[in-house]
Amino acid sequence: MSEDIQTYSATAESGNVYERRSRWAKIKLAARKSPYTARFGITVILIYVLVALLAPLLAPYGEAQVFPAPYEPWSSTHFFGTDQIGRDIFSRMIYGARNTVGIAVATTLLSFLIGGSLGLAAAIDRRWIDQIFSRSVDVLMAIPSLIFALVLLSIFGSTVLNLIIIIAVLDATRVFRLTRSVAVNVVVMDYVEAAKLRGEGLGWVMRREILPNILPPLIAEFGLRFCFVFLTIAALSFLGVGIQPPTADWGSMVRENANLLQFAQYDLRAGLTPLLPAAAIALLTVAVNFVVDWFLHKTSGLRDEQ
Amino acid sequence: MSNKAQKGDVLLDIKSLEIEGFSDEKWHEIIKGVDLTLRRGEVMGLIGESGAGKSTLGLAAMGYTQPGCRITGGSINFDGVNLAQMSDEQMRGYWGNRMTYVAQSAAASFNPAHRLIEQTTSSTIRFGIKEKAEAHKDAHVLYAALNLPDPTNIGDRYPHQVSGGQLQRVMTAMAMSPRPDLIIFDEPTTALDVTTQVEVLSSMRAIVEEFNTAAIYITHDLAVVAQMADVIKVLRYGEEVEEAATRQMLKSPKQDYTKSLWSVRALQKEEHTATDSIMSLRGIDAAYGTAKVLFDVDIDVPKGSTVAVVGESGSGKSTTARVITGLLPQSAGSVVFDGDALPERLADRTKEQKRRIQMIYQMADTAMNPRQTVRDIIGRPLEFYLGVRGKANTERVIELLEMIELNADFLERLPAELSGGQKQRICIARALAANPEFIICDEVTSALDQIVQEGILKLLLRLQSELGLTYMFITHDISTVKAIADQVVVMNEGRVVEQGSKTEVFQPPHPAYTELLLSSVPEMDPDWLTNLNAARNR
Questions:
Q1: B236, B46 contact by CB (below 8 A)
Q2: Domain co-membership, B27 together with B169
Q3: Is the pLDDT at A298 greater than 80, yes or no?
Q4: Domain membership flag for residue B111
């Protein structure tokens, strides 16, 4: 057959219809199509982050600054009144954002570092590494984590560092399970085999070949785990073994001012005071969940109804 | 069913149909004004490369559009009604009743929880065409007509209890059961081995003829369409290139594009004889766990030549490749590369040994990390094996891209932004980046359209002559073997059946298995299947 009828050229082959967009353009496009719940969630999270970062500038008084009058009612000098030893509750709320959220983020990051790397290693080496890690995780998960955390904290003492490490390790079990289960689907791909054939080490295969491909579910899980960690810390603080005074923290603030609830019949606003930190916790949890829902929907590959 | 219908009446009449698909935030034209006329009892072959719109058109003939697609113009006239204007609710009276569909992957299309006969007859019973007992009896007749073993009992099995070829035939029986006016076959044999394909094609053709059903047969395999179709329509970029009766189309295609499709199979490599072997397998046995899959395999690969390993799925071709690469350590025997026995386990091999043997995979889609750009994919072996970094790395990547007939524009693209052929080219470049001497090509062209296949084969041949590469080419496609091989190894059930130069192996007399394999490869002759069946029945 003659050559001249060949119309084929490799560069002209039609690939998928795909428009190149800058990262910024992609973000703008996603934002435009986002549901209002996600927009609400993102706005709330941004406000929390700003408050946490700018706490010393925003708070009218210091974190542990004590005023002579305890249980002061709401007023223009003390926006939400003062607590049992005369600290400004509004200021402590603002500092609380920094402490509670900051510790929760640090804990979640640590638990992902531990759970994620062990989960990846287990997915790649399906023999004894997988067995050892998976069975240890099963053991850890068999014990109710809040009680386990209480026991460990009373053994090692309630410092912030201990708190972070203990909750991170307990939470890492769930991260491990998720990472392992999504990574085993990627490990069987030819490109992972190609990397192994090339002679790449475990670290490269984990970081460069597998991790980028399992990131979407991990990011979603990060949001959810953050909520759980945040609630666990608040619960532990409420029980008195979490973040210790004088550090401002929403969980312990609920406990410290809890008896104000019974004054609600005399002054509604006094009764509201212990609910304020609780509401701050609830609002952030709801906001993060909204964002995670949207993100999961986006990455699930489901088409929006046209 | 309309009883008064005569063979030759127009059944389906599509006029200037336009379909758009939604992707990446925009509507794109998929079908750009195609006309199609199909008469009762006629089989039309739709051929074209992927993205030509053949599946979309096939589905549109049933009045169906995939999610994310919409019909924007034209009409689909089926036996007097315009399907383009009917709702899904109204269409449900037609689907599975007057028109049925045979999908590419039978295994993925059956419900694993129900017996085959229930699935074969469900729409027939639901539309009240036949009573249950009658429908089941009819299914047995259809199974027999489709040459399925034990037709009265095979329907009691579940989908996983029959082979892929049998399942494809059961699906044809399912499509036939309501005695539809129209069947759409969407690449029904693409996933099958050649020897199975012949049987499936014969029974499909026989049954379509017997019941005088109109059919649209979608495929990219010209030889297959030549056996099945009365009329062939060639599509490209959502437009019709040409349409003609099969014999006329095969003999004298008018358009350049069609001619180029036809010429693909003419590629033939001059046989190259070499003596000193670079790779020798000696008495290789291998097993997955306790299941032994390779038995005493001896293969010699002469330096600078191409050895094609052919066989059906499950014959041990790919396992042989896994032994060579060290992914599956052999249980007996040795792999000798360039005079030295290679360590069995990949982990025990040196970086240099790994560099000299590279592999190209069948599915370029899964062989490239979807999150890495072309620059990273090709650049990594350069950096890893040869320590080429930074600007020199980029320059070399561009050089490699030009070697595979692409250019620097592709540097920052992700695999999802490439066509099938381009992806496979990038995989070739990644293998070349390591400066290898021996490349294992595992079915590298089988997932590609024919024109693209030809381009890849030509590229591989050119690279071989320029760089003196040695290929081990694993394939089940005999025309690919003719195009690229010097030596041929025929494998069956984990053993080497025949081995020798291409001319030797293709020249009779053959061992029985080679004979079966060679004779099952469809040829571009509309009488091939008829003649073959006549010869085999004799």
A1: no
A2: yes
A3: no
A4: yes
One-letter amino acid for residue B438 of the chain: F
Nearest-CA residue of chain A relative to B355? A198
Nearest C-alpha neighbor of B286 from the set B235, B352, B330, B341: B330
Contacts of A12-18 with C-beta under 8 Å, sequence gap 24+, read A13/B419, A13/B420, A13/B421, A13/B422, A13/B452, A14/B51, A14/B237, A14/B419, A15/B417, A15/B418, A15/B419, A15/B422, A16/B23, A16/B416, A16/B417, A16/B418, A16/B419, A17/B23, A17/B24, A17/B26, A17/B28, A18/B24, A18/B416, A18/B417
For residue B406, the domain's CATH number is 3.40.50.300
* Interface touch A212/B367, C-beta < 8 Å: no
Cβ–Cβ of A10/B425 closer than 8 Å?
yes
Interchain CB contact of A301 with B (< 8 Å): no
pLDDT band at A63 (very low <50, low <70, confident <90, very high): confident
CB B488 within 8 A of CB B505: yes
B503, two tokens: 């001319």
Q: Do B407 and A11 lie within an 8 Å CB cutoff?
A: yes
Phi-psi region of B249 (alpha: psi -120 to 50; beta: other; left: phi over 0): alpha
Q: Would the CB atoms of B419 and A19 count as touching at under 8 Å?
A: no
Substitution target from A16, A125, A127, A186 for chain B, most B beta carbons within 10 A: A16
Interface pTM, i.e. ipTM = 0.77
Nearest to A14 among B68, B404, B419 (CB): B419
B67, B367, B417: residue with CB nearest A194? B367
| Last residue in a domain, options B220, B244, B266 | B266
pLDDT, average across residues A268-286: 86
Question: What pLDDT, on the 0 to 100 scale, is given for residue A13?
Answer: 65
Preferred mutation among A4, A19, A186, A197 to probe B, highest tally of B CBs within 10 A: A197
Q: Does pTM top 0.90 for this prediction?
A: no
Same domain? B281 vs B262: no
Compute the mean pLDDT over every residue in chain A, rounded to the nearest whole number. Answer: 84
Do B366 and A303 count as a contact with CB atoms less than 8 A apart? no
Are B434 and A198 an interchain contact pair (Cβ–Cβ within 8 Å)? yes
Which residues on neighbouring strands pair with residue B291, listed in sequence order?
B288
CA distances from B318 to A73, B325, B407 (A): 79, 11, 32
Average pLDDT over residues A128-132: 90
Say which range, A225-229, A301-305, B268-272, B443-447, has the weakest mean pLDDT. A301-305
Provide the pLDDT for residue B2: 44
The pair of three-digit structure tokens given for residue B136, joined into one six-digit string: 């089941």
Q: Which domain holds residue B179?
A: 10-266
| Residue B347 burial (CB count, 10 A) | 10
Chain A, nearest residue to B327 by Cα: A197
Distance from CA of A143 to the nearest CA of B (A): 37
Which residue is closest to B424 within chain A, CA to CA? A10
Beta carbons of A16 and B416 less than 8 Å apart:
yes
SS3 A290: helix
CATH of A36-299, one of 3.30.450.20, 1.10.3720.10, 1.10.60.30, 1.10.10.60: 1.10.3720.10
Beta bridge partners of B286: B294
Cβ A306–B68 below 8 Å, yes or no?
Answer: yes
Mean pLDDT split into 10-residue runs, chain B, 538 residues: 61 89 78 89 86 85 84 88 85 88 84 91 90 92 86 89 85 90 87 79 84 88 86 88 87 83 71 80 88 90 91 84 91 90 90 92 88 92 91 93 89 85 92 93 83 87 91 86 88 89 83 84 82 80
**CA distance, residue B188 to nearest chain A CA (Å):** 24
Of A57-71, A195-209, B246-260, highest mean pLDDT? A195-209
